[in-house]
Write a structure and sequence with these properties.
The complex is a heterodimer of chains A (325) and B (371). Chain A folds into two domains: 183 residues, Thiamin diphosphate (ThDP)-binding fold, Pyr/PP domains (Rossmann fold, 3-Layer(aba) Sandwich), CATH 3.40.50.970; 128 residues, Rossmann fold. Helix content of chain A is 35%, strand content 20%. Chain A has twelve helices and 14 strands. In chain A, the strands form three sheets. In chain A, strands 3-2-4-5-7-6-12 form a seven-stranded mixed beta sheet, with helices on both faces. Chain A has a five-stranded mixed beta sheet with strand order 9-11-10-13-14, with helices on both faces. In chain A, strands 1-8 form a two-stranded antiparallel ribbon. Chain B has 371 residues and is α/β, with parallel strands linked by helices. Chain B folds into two domains: 319 residues, Thiamin diphosphate (ThDP)-binding fold, Pyr/PP domains (Rossmann fold, 3-Layer(aba) Sandwich); 30 residues, no CATH class. In chain B, α7 links the parallel β3 and β4. The longest helix of chain B has 26 residues. The model of chain B has no long low-confidence stretch (mean pLDDT 96). The chains are: A alpha/beta (325), B alpha/beta (371). Chains A and B meet through α3, α4 and α5 of A and α6, α7 and α14 of B.
Chain lengths: 325, 371
Amino acid sequence: MAQMTMIQAITDALRVELRNDPNVLVFGEDVGVNGGVFRATEGLQAEFGEERVFDTPLAESGIGGLAIGLGLQGYRPVMEIQFFGFVYEVMDAVAGQMARMRYRSGGTYTSPVTIRSPFGGGVHTPEMHADSLEGLVAQQPGLKVVIPSTPYDAKGLLISAIRDNDPVVYLEHMKLYRSFRQEVPEEEYTIPLGVADVKREGTDLSIITYGAMVHESLKAAEELEKEGHSVEVIDLRTIMPFDIDTIIASIEKTGRAMVVQEAQKQAGIAAQIVAEINDRAILNLEAPVLRVAAPDTVYPFSQAETVWLPNYKDVIETAKKVLTF
Amino acid sequence: MASKTKNTMADSVKQLEQIQDGFETLQILNEEGEVVNKAAMPDLADEQLQELMKRMVYTRILDQRSISLNRQGRLGFYAPTAGQEASQLASQFALEKEDFILPGYRDVPQMIWHGLPLYQAFLFSRGHFHGNQIPEGVNVISPQIIIGAQYIQAAGVALGMKKRGAQSVAITYTGDGGASQGDFYEGINFAGAYKAPAIFIVQNNRFAISTPVEKQSAAKTIAQKAVAAGIPGVQVDGMDPLAVYVAVREARERAVNGEGPTLIETLTYRYGPHTMAGDDPTRYRTADLDNEWEKKDPLVRFRKFLESKGIWNEEMENEVIEKAKDDIKDAIKKADEQPKQKVTDLMSNMYEEMPNHLQEQYEIYTEKESK
């Protein structure tokens, strides 16, 4: 076991898979000799060579096309979009093409592509770097969308994503890259996609969340504990397909639920989760399922992040509404 | 680099003119079927020349029958190909089996001659997934509807071949309108940067639906767009099967020798509408223009050329026509016999392993389908 940050766990997962499978290729803007703008691919080109880990021209759409074509030739591409705000440039390759490859070819071809991309607020990035756009890709049949919140999850989920024979969007929250260390096994291990993790057990309220909001929710749960409320925090880890069984099992125990996301209220995936809960567990609910989300504006100018981004205080406030309904 | 002192603007204009004038049209056969460029003649045996003519005649019949089957409602989406036989089939004729084709929506004939069964091409037209289930060993992917997407994907396929050390190429096709897309430029630029074995063909039939090529770009040729990627660009007479064949064959040789991609512009024309979905070319094309291009018909000039060599006659041509009609009849019958698609089929083709939400829906539809 080693103490790793999330970014180190990601690099470790990439190293494991580059070693395991000669078809794994890692590429994107500045991922080679530079080791990535966040050092996620640090040392990989030196270890595996330019044939395996390489830079591309500055064109996201072209990178997506490259991944699809390499996939058609039997490779297992792990492409990077430098910041997920740039996904608009490559939306066709991701949603219009690789997501549909297996279906449109009746199973003849696949796109075993992993798309790694940083996102998320709280670090004062310039425009279009921090936007939470996971809701867009979660709406595309054919994709899976993974968002880890811990170093341990990041490694196991990334290995699973790379080994998956269908396209996986793997989103890395920038604020979580180096915010804390955790014990991470040095050997390979996998975490199944589509399976949530109960990060804290509780009996009064279920908080369903993902990404940086997992930590805000855990912090809120601690505060609420002091006031005598036992809160369960479910980290979805995969937001599409999401683990409805774990969510429902939790609600059957607690009778109350809320969904916490960093994305704007009209975006993200909270609405989808609320709808599924209403479909499946309405008779277990003592209160409506409320949401914590950002205001429905464009992502804030960096100085406004603190007043705009949802945080543990918002979680506490909404939790009390649900608890006292 | 030499520094400029004065008349910078004038120099730039001159430079542009020099570049534009550098792209001459490669032609081997003129409209009369006469060889006008002996030096460029491809080394093709009589049997090969006959085979190419057979494919072109067959495909012209396929176009005529497809239009009529579409009108009867027995085919769905169809983009007419008449006029583009040299551009489509002579380019495919220059390929090897291991080469991978990424076609646009008008490029079904290349797929068929690369090994896609005709009845599956008809199922593609109708909208049935089996039409896209490409047989093992046939290196094509189903026609791309998003104009330009096939170009960036071709760069990836070609890079994959290069990494494997394969002696093969990726070839892809778009139209004159397609050359305005960002993916067109990114595709050729990526392939250039990686020196990947790709052949990019632009079939310039002068119209993108109703928009003439002059409204796509101020560039005098599309071939010169290769300059932006730093790769060779060639403009050929796309109504001349021998010129198309030579250009593709040479691009293929360069590619498999590790010298990178080539952009080939074929000057061609579609005699029919853009698609069979209600397009009416008389709204945007003059009869004079149609007549002018009908004189350039690739079948007419190639027929004359082969007849002058004494290796083609009416009887041979009629044999091909009858064969085509028989094959088409059989293929439509086989397409008719294909089982109807069920929602559960569509669900099964989404992922290798069905996620829970889809599994739930699968069970609901299995129940519905059992009633």
